[in-house]
Specification:
binds alpha-D-galactopyranose, globular, alpha+beta, 2 domains, 393 residues, Ribosomal Protein S5, domain 2
C-alpha cells in the first residue's frame, strides 16, 4: 500500500502568503491504541503509539494582542482578541482552548498568527483533536518561552479538550501524541503517569486501520455517560470500602457484591473496565515476548467487551471485526478509541494486506453502503519542532 507523505512546504507557503513572515513549525501525531480502551479515565493502563499521520502548525508572534488563525483543511480564517476566547463548536476550539488554558494558568502568551494543517483524518478515532492541541501548546511554549515540561503540556492539552470541546477525555491521546517514539508502543499507567516504551517488533505483521467512515454524533455525550457510570460504580463500592479511589482498585468480587445488586447495567460497564485492565497487563507481556498471536486474541476479547458490555461500538465496526475474526492472516482486531464509529485496528500479516483490503472493501460497501478506507500505519515520534526541515515528512 502506498504511503503518502505530508508536504510541509504547503503550510509554509500559506503562512508566507497570509502573514508575510517565516514561522516556527511543529508536527504532532495522531495515535493508535493496541489495547486498553476506556481504561485511562479509570486510572488504568493503556498501550498507545504515535503514528505517521499528524497535525502541523506554523506560528509566529504578532505585535498586538490578537490571534489570527487559518485552517488549510477547512479553508477558513478566524481572528479574535486574546481577551475574547470562547468555544465555537468547530476546529478553532482545539487551538483557542489551549490558549485559554495557558492564560488561566497565568502563562504570558501574546498575540500570534497560526496556520493549521495535517494529514490526520478527522473524526476517525485517531485523535486529531489531541494532535492539534499538542501541536499548539508545544508551538506556543517554544514561541513564548513558557518553560512548560512535556507532561505539563499534556495535562494542559487535556484540560483544553475538557473545557472547550466538552469531552471529559482521559490522558491517553494527548500523552501518546506528545511522548510517542518511533518504533515503540508506550505502556502508560494512567494513575501514576509512569510509562515505559515497548518495542513494537512484529516480524512480518503490520498495523492496518480500517476506517468505517461512520462518525456518530453520539460519541461525546455517550463518552461522558460512560465515565459517569464508572464513577457511579466506584461510589457504591466506596461506601463499604472507603479506600477505593477508582476502578483501578476494584476486583470482580467487589463488583458482584456491591454493584450488581444495585444496577445490572453499571455492573456490566464496570466489569468490562476491570477485565480490560487485567487483559492489558498480560497483553504487554505478550508483546515483550513477541507472542503476537496471543496479543491478537486479547484484542478480539477487548472488542467483544467494548461491543457487548461497554456498548461503545456500532454495527459497521462490529461488521469489520467479525469479517476478519476467523481469518488466519489477521492476528487481532478490534474497535479503537472512544467508539461509535471511526477505525478498527487490525494486526495483519504483511503479504495478506492487499488482497484483504480489496475483498473487505467490496463486501463492506455491499453490506453497509459505505466506502471503506484502509491505512497501514508506521509508528513515529511524538510532538516535535520541524522548523529546520523542508519537503515531504
Ligand atoms: C478517546 C479519549 C481517550 C480514551 C479513549 C478510549 O480517545 O480521548 O482519553 O478514553 O477515547 O480509550
Amino acid at each position: 500500500m502506498e504511503l503518502n507523505k505530508y508536504d510541509i512546504e504547503l503550510i509554509k507557503e500559506d503562512f508566507r502568503r497570509l502573514f508575510g513572515t517565516k514561522p516556527l513549525l511543529v508536527r504532532s501525531p495522531g495515535r493508535i491504541n493496541i489495547i486498553g480502551e476506556h481504561t485511562d479515565y479509570n486510572e488504568g493502563f493503556v498501550l498507545p503509539a504515535a503514528i505517521d499521520k499528524a497535525a502541523y502548525v506554523a506560528v509566529a508572534k504578532r505585535e498586538d494582542n490578537n490571534i489570527h488563525l487559518y485552517s488549510r483543511s477547512f479553508r477558513e480564517e478566524y481572528a479574535c482578541s486574546l481577551m475574547a476566547l470562547f468555544p465555537r463548536k468547530t476546529w478553532t476550539d482545539y487551538v483557542l482552548g489551549v490558549v485559554d488554558q495557558l492564560l488561566i494558568k497565568g502563562y504570558g502568551v501574546g498575540g500570534f498568527n497560526l496556520v493549521l494543517d495535517g494529514d490526520i483524518i478527522i473524526g476517525a478515532g485517531l485523535s486529531s483533536s489531541a494532535a492539534v492541541e499538542c501541536s499548539v501548546v508545544y508551538a506556543l511554549n517554544t514561541l513564548f518561552e513558557l518553560g512548560l515540561s512535556k507532561m505539563e503540556m499534556v495535562k494542559l492539552a487535556q484540560a483544553a479538550e475538557h473545557s472547550f470541546a466538552g469531552v471529559k477525555c482521559g490522558i491517553m491521546d494527548q500523552f501518546a501524541s506528545m511522548f510517542g517514539k518511533k518504533g515503540y508502543a508506550i505502556q502508560l499507567d494512567c494513575r501514576s503517569l509512569e510509562y515505559n516504551y515497548i518495542p513494537l517488533h512484529m516480524e512480518g505483521i503490520s498495523v492496518l486501520l480500517l476506517n468505517s467512515n461512520v462518525s456518530h454524533s453520539l460519541a461525546s455525550s455517550e463518552y461522558n455517560t460512560r465515565r459517569e457510570q464508572c464513577e457511579q460504580g466506584v461510589s457504591w463500592i466506596k461506601k463499604f470500602i472507603p479506600e477505593i479511589v477508582s476502578l483501578r482498585d476494584v476486583t470482580l468480587n467487589m463488583l458482584e457484591r456491591y454493584v450488581l445488586p444495585k444496577d445490572a447495567l453499571i455492573y456490566k460497564r464496570c466489569r468490562y473496565v476491570v477485565e480490560e485492565n487485567v487483559r492489558l497487563q498480560s497483553a504487554c507481556d505478550d508483546l515483550k515476548q513477541g507472542d503476537i498471536q496471543s496479543l491478537g486474541k486479547k484484542m478480539f476479547l477487548t472488542h467483544n467487551g467494548l461491543s457487548k458490555e461497554y456498548e461503545v461500538s456500532c454495527r459497521e465496526i462490529d461488521w469489520l471485526v467479525d469479517y476478519v475474526r476467523n481469518n488466519p492472516e489477521v492476528l487481532g482486531a478490534r474497535m479503537m478509541g472512544g467508539g461509535f464509529g471511526g477505525c478498527s485496528i487490525n494486526l495483519v500479516k504483511e503479504k495478506a494486506i492487499d488482497p484483504l483490503v480489496e475483498h473487505i472493501s467490496k463486501q463492506y460497501k455491499e453490506a453497509t453502503g459505505l466506502t471503506l478506507d484502509a491505512y497501514v500505519v508506521q509508528i513515529e515520534n511524538g510532538t516535535e519542532n520541524i522548523s529546520f526541515k523542508s519537503g515531504k515528512q
